[in-house]
Design brief:
Elements: H1 2-22, E1 28-29, E2 34-38, E3 47-51, E4 59-63, E5 76-83, E6 87-97, E7 111-116, E8 120-125, E9 128-130, E10 145-146, E11 149-153, E12 172-177, E13 181-188, E14 194-202, H2 209-212, E15 242-245, E16 253-254, E17 260-262, E18 264-267, E19 273-280, E20 283-288, E21 295-297, E22 303-313, E23 318-327, E24 347-350, E25 358-359, E26 365-367, E27 369-372, E28 378-385, E29 388-393, E30 400-402, E31 408-418, E32 423-432, E33 450-453, E34 461-462, E35 468-470, E36 472-475, E37 481-488, E38 491-496, E39 503-505, E40 511-521, E41 526-535, E42 551-557, E43 563-567, E44 571-573, E45 577-585, E46 591-598, E47 602-606, E48 611-612, E49 616-617, E50 620-621, E51 624-625, E52 629-638, E53 647-657, E54 669-671, E55 680-684, E56 691-699, E57 704-712, E58 718-722, H3 724-727, E59 732-740, E60 743-751
Parallel strand pairs: 1-5, 16-23, 25-32, 34-41, 44-53
Antiparallel strand pairs: 2-14, 3-4, 4-14, 5-13, 6-12, 6-14, 7-11, 7-13, 8-9, 8-12, 10-11, 15-18, 17-21, 19-20, 19-22, 22-23, 24-27, 26-30, 28-29, 28-31, 31-32, 33-36, 35-39, 37-38, 37-40, 40-41, 42-43, 42-45, 45-48, 45-51, 46-47, 46-52, 49-50, 52-53, 54-55, 55-58, 56-57, 56-59, 59-60
Length: 752
């Protein structure tokens, strides 16, 4: 009997030792479908552990390094997680903007790089799925992404669980783990002043979003360990490791297309090496543990390669070595010979696109390509859209997808390169919506849709921490609704297709919420509704402060930043496009909410002057559009930022756009379009335009390339322009701006 008890004791001891060993090296683990970790549990590089009001454990991980917008690899913190139950998990983190910018505060200092080394790492919004750049999977998100990292951003200044990827097309973040085991999560610094507090991975089938966000839940330390902070950093008596390259020397040269093997030797005199990291041109490309396998850089192209290795010992101390090598000269001081005259250039064409093909607004354009090389092989495919490189593939081409397209002209170019450096090019121009068509769009026929809120009313109050469900009703009398978009304080937070699922604003904080819905029908027409709700007064019946006249409004030209006219009650103005409205006040304002309703709808929260209805960038006004008809413009002035604190003034004005000509529609267009190399263009003028008409042309980056003036008579309905500089420009989309006595007009031009 004693023998049985003894054997049972040792069996149990071995069992518990095995459980403990399974968690060796893991920072936290998934338990029952959820994994939680305070992110300040680890740090690296320019990440700092700082005390922060509102942080879940009183402290946060704050990035205080240089901005690293173009690529990840700056100050990488690596967390390890033990997954017990395979499956798909949604990733969220609690974060905030720790540095408040003087302009566009909600979109600066607001993001970090994230990489989950799972079986599959992707973003999802409805049926749309995206993958991080550099993963080899497509499509990739809008904006920055490389090295297998997503850019994860928030548009909330205060603490929130806002976790988005893909600029202006927010996708949730997911990780799929096909088997149980230990995986890594890497966080790399991107924006100085971004704070991250707690991260959570959870199965959506097992937990609701609000349950996953519950701060009363303890972090899931591996093997049920305590939630106490990690041990202090290594003491001063720890000897840092050493590291060097074994196969590379400074300035070493390699031939194009060769493979560079990165040999490394690292040791630690008083401990052991637990991690090796390889960076190429500041991008993390390989992470190994204690055992290092030489990283290989394959299919090298001409250029300079800065290769860095970082070795970490068992007490967290690091050592770094850097070597710079060159690809392309092969060590020779003379340039390589050109391709032999016997090489036949490749050929390329589009397999599914034709010149002038039309697409609906919001659709996806798949760019199919067929390329061949009779004397060798095609080794590179490059796709350009409006002269911007958007995709590069090697010998195998995956169709590039242009998603969520907006109205305009798209010049799509493919360049293929063969194994001897010869290239071939093909270009096709397609149109979305009415694009740059030389035929003016119809002025009637399609009836715009209607949209309204079903459960929210103007000025409705909610308690702090409550959830606001945004119910919407949209219909189209002569077609169908194909897209619903929800904006909160002018930030796009949700996009649905024809079927709308109520958007939920969770964990609300004190403040004003301007909620906007935009519905789009099957012919591209839109309808908009705006409602302003309040969080924090608990339904207080205290009336708002009395109306104040301390705010004045000025119509400005967004192209020149110059004032056009003051707007007062009963004003009539004629300008429609390339305009903005500036609100000025003598009050001690910390923020202003501007709301436009009537024939046009817009809403904006501004924290700094100029208080511009359509926004500005460092005082340069962004362009807006005013429809003909009656409008009401309201400005609410607050003592705190983002519409918080006390309302210290409010002013409203009623004005009309179009005056006696409000019922007339002026169709303005240019032809030929695309513009020919001679730059000669005829412009159909707005009805009644006369005298001097100023014109200018800018490229898609807003840089002016041409300007001038033309004199027309009262009965003249068109004018000839000589845009010789445009005729000599590179292919792309340009914008012709006309300023006449009948208003300001913008016409897209295509240069092939």
């Amino acid at each position: 009997m004693k023998l049985k008890i003894t054997l049972l004791f040792f069996a149990q001891l071995l069992f518990f030792q095995e459980i403990s060993a399974q968690c060796t090296g893991a920072d936290f683990e998934e338990k029952n479908g959820i994994a939680i970790l305070e992110m300040e549990a680890k740090t690296a590089g320019s990440w700092r552990i700082e005390s922060s009001s509102g942080a879940s454990a009183g402290k946060t991980l704050a990035y205080r390094g240089n901005n690293s917008f173009s690529a990840p690899g700056s100050s990488v913190v690596t967390y390890s997680i033990k997954i017990n139950s395979p499956g798909t998990y949604r990733f969220i983190w609690r974060n905030k903007i720790g540095v408040i910018a003087s302009h566009n505060a909600a979109t600066e200092h607001n993001d970090s790089w994230l990489k989950i080394n799972a079986s599959n790492f992707y973003g999802q919004q409805g049926s749309s799925r995206i993958y991080p750049g550099g993963s080899g999977k497509f499509p990739v998100p809008n904006g920055a992404s490389s090295g297998g990292y997503f850019k994860i951003y928030t548009n909330n200044i205060n603490w929130s669980w806002s976790t988005w990827t893909s600029d202006n097309d927010g996708h949730f973040v997911y990780a799929q783990f096909n088997s149980a085991g230990v995986y890594t999560i890497q966080v790399s610094g991107r924006s100085n002043g971004h704070f991250v507090d707690r991260m959570v991975l959870y199965k959506e089938a097992s937990y609701s979003l609000s349950q996953a966000q519950n701060l009363s839940l303890s972090q899931t330390n591996c093997s049920g360990g305590s939630t106490t902070p990690p041990p202090p950093p290594p003491t001063s008596d720890n000897i840092a490791p050493t590291v060097s390259f074994t196969s590379l020397s400074e300035g070493q040269s390699f031939a194009v297309g060769s493979t560079i093997s990165v040999g490394v030797s690292a040791n630690d005199s008083d401990g052991s090496i637990v991690k090796h990291q390889i960076y190429v041109n500041n991008s993390l490309v390989d992470t190994d543990g204690s055992g290092y396998t030489p990283h290989k850089i394959t299919n090298t192209t001409v250029g300079n390669y800065a290769i860095k290795v970082v070795a970490t010992d068992n007490e967290g101390a690091t050592a770094t070595a850097i070597v710079n090598v060159v690809v392309g000269d092969g060590g020779s001081t003379t340039p390589p010979p050109p391709p032999t005259s016997g090489n036949t250039a490749p050929s390329v064409s589009f397999s599914n696109l034709s010149e002038g093909q039309s697409f609906a607004v919001g659709s996806t354009i798949s760019v199919g390509v067929s390329a061949s090389d009779p004397g060798g092989s095609v080794v590179k495919h490059q796709i350009f859209v409006n002269n911007v490189l958007v995709d590069t593939d090697g010998s195998g081409y995956t169709p590039h997808k242009i998603t969520n397209v907006t109205t305009g002209n798209y010049a799509i170019k493919v360049v293929v390169t063969d194994n001897e450096g010869a290239t071939a090019t093909a270009t096709v121009n397609v149109v979305v919506g009415d694009g740059g068509s030389t035929t003016p769009p119809p002025t009637s026929g399609n009836t715009a849709p209607l949209v309204s809120f079903t459960n929210l009313s103007e000025g409705q109050s909610f308690e702090v921490g409550s959830t606001i469900s945004v119910g919407v009703s949209a219909n189209d009398s002569d077609g169908s609704i194909v897209k619903h978009q929800i904006y909160v304080n002018n930030s796009l937070v949700d996009t649905d297709g024809s079927g709308y699922t109520p958007h939920k604003i969770t964990n609300t904080t004190v403040g004003n919420y301007a909620i906007k819905v935009v519905a789009t029908d099957n012919e591209g027409a839109t309808a908009m509704a705006i409602v302003n709700v309040v969080v924090g007064d608990g339904g207080s019946t205290t009336p708002p402060p009395p109306s104040d006249t301390a705010v004045s409004f000025t119509l400005v030209n967004s192209l020149t930043n110059g004032n056009i006219t003051l707007i007062s009650n009963g004003s009539t103005i004629t300008a429609n496009s390339n305009v903005n409205i500036n609100a000025t006040t003598s009050l001690n304002a910390k923020s202003m909410i501007l709301t436009l309703s009537g024939a046009s709808n817009a809403s904006r929260v501004e924290n700094f002057a100029p208080y511009a209805l359509f926004g500005d960038v460092s005082g340069n006004y962004l362009s807006g559009f005013l429809n003909n008809g009656s409008h009401t413009l309201k400005a609410d002035v607050f003592s705190g930022s983002n519409g918080t604190g006390s309302m210290i003034g409010t002013t409203s004005v009623n004005f009309t756009v179009g005056g006696s000509n409000a019922s007339k529609t002026s169709v303005v267009y240019a032809y030929p379009n695309p513009v020919l190399s001679d730059g000669k263009v005829t412009v159909k003028l707005p009805a009644g335009a006369s005298d001097d008409i100023l014109y200018s042309v800018t490229n898609s980056s807003g840089i002016q390339v041409e300007k001038g003036k033309v004199i027309v008579g009262k009965s003249q309905d068109s004018a000839d322009l000589q845009l010789s500089k445009v005729g000599n420009q590179v292919p792309g989309v340009y914008y012709l701006i006309l300023q006449s006595n009948k208003g300001i007009y913008s016409i897209p031009l295509v240069k092939e």
